[in-house]
Automatic annotation (TrEMBL):
Residues 1-28 form the signal peptide. Pfam families: SBP_bac_3. Keywords: Signal. It comes from Parapusillimonas granuli. PANTHER family: ARGININE-BINDING EXTRACELLULAR PROTEIN ARTP (PTHR35936:SF17), MEMBRANE-BOUND LYTIC MUREIN TRANSGLYCOSYLASE F (PTHR35936). The keyword Signal applies. It comes from the Bacteria. This is Transporter substrate-binding domain-containing protein. InterPro entries: Solute-binding_3/MltF_N. Residues 39-261 form the Solute-binding protein family 3/N-terminal domain.
């Protein structure tokens, strides 16, 4: 576990250092201030489908929007969406341009030094995609010279394969549709990536008997990020998120956007009941 996190740790630490040298944290809007303004401002990445995506009306839509809109509704305020990208989402929280941010906000120790996190809303599972005719039981079984891995050129799992599965052959392709097609056509045996995002590609090869290894390589817990020390807002968001887990809203919206159930229960996080 935590292999990918180790590989990207240097990048995250560098990003944290940049944040520390950047604009000083502005005063965060407390829960009372959010309620008084009658709006909750949430940053969402519109280029991260299906979490965030522009719809045919050129409006930001997706799983993150559905969840944020419901949270705002339960607060009794309107939702204001601010488009953010991966590099600017944490700076937007720190500078108080937004009250909270989504977009696969994985809780890491480095990020937790500069922002606070709600309890997890969803998970992302790093694991192995293969086909049912393959004999592999554990991901370490792939470290064999007879195994041909396929990965997307430049993707984070490439380094994991090179360092942890050095005996395996490695086929690098330029995009996810091509990589999944290589598996479907038998030109590769397995692929490591975040499995939650694979369904849109595997569904295009309905004749293939796909298999996702049951034991994950890693599990990422993703919640909302809020400004450091904004306890009143974080605690209220936590209560709402827990209610949305309890009543099935989050599971319902996940299946709507991802085409199947979440692969790992976010309530299993050690931070869920803290």
């Amino acid at each position: 576990m935590k292999l990918i996190k180790a590989f990207v740790g240097a990048f995250v630490m560098a990003g944290t250092a940049i944040l520390a040298l950047g604009p000083a944290a502005a005063h965060a809007r407390s829960l009372d201030e959010v309620m008084a303004s009658k709006k909750l401002i949430v940053g969402i990445n519109p280029n991260f489908p299906p979490l965030g995506v522009y719809n045919d009306k050129n409006e930001i839509d997706g799983f993150d929007v559905d969840v944020s809109r419901k949270i705002a509704e339960m607060l009794g305020v309107k939702l204001e969406i601010v488009p953010v990208g991966s590099p600017d989402r944490i700076p937007f929280v720190i500078s108080n341009k937004i009250d909270a941010v989504m977009g696969a906000m994985t809780r890491t120790d480095e990020r937790a030094k500069v922002i606070d996190f709600t309890v997890p809303i969803h998970t992302e599972v790093l694991g192995v995609l293969t086909t049912k005719d393959k004999p592999y039981k554990e991901w370490t079984d792939l470290n064999n010279s007879s195994v041909r891995m396929v990965e997307v050129r430049g993707a984070t799992p490439v380094k994991l394969v090179q360092e942890q599965l050095p005996k395996a052959q490695l086929l690098l392709l330029d995009n996810y549709p091509d990589a999944v097609r290589a598996l479907a056509q038998g030109r590769a045996d397995a692929m490591i990536d975040v499995l939650d995002f694979m369904r849109e590609h595997t569904n295009k090869h309905a004749n293939v008997k796909w298999h996702m290894m049951q034991t994950p390589i890693d599990v990422y817990y993703c919640g909302m990020g809020v400004q450091k020390g904004n306890t009143s807002l974080a605690e209220r968001l936590n209560g709402i998120i827990k209610e949305l887990h309890k009543n099935g809203f989050i599971d319902e919206k996940w299946e709507k956007w991802f085409g199947g159930p979440m692969l790992h229960d976010p309530r299993s996080s050690p931070y869920y009941n803290k």
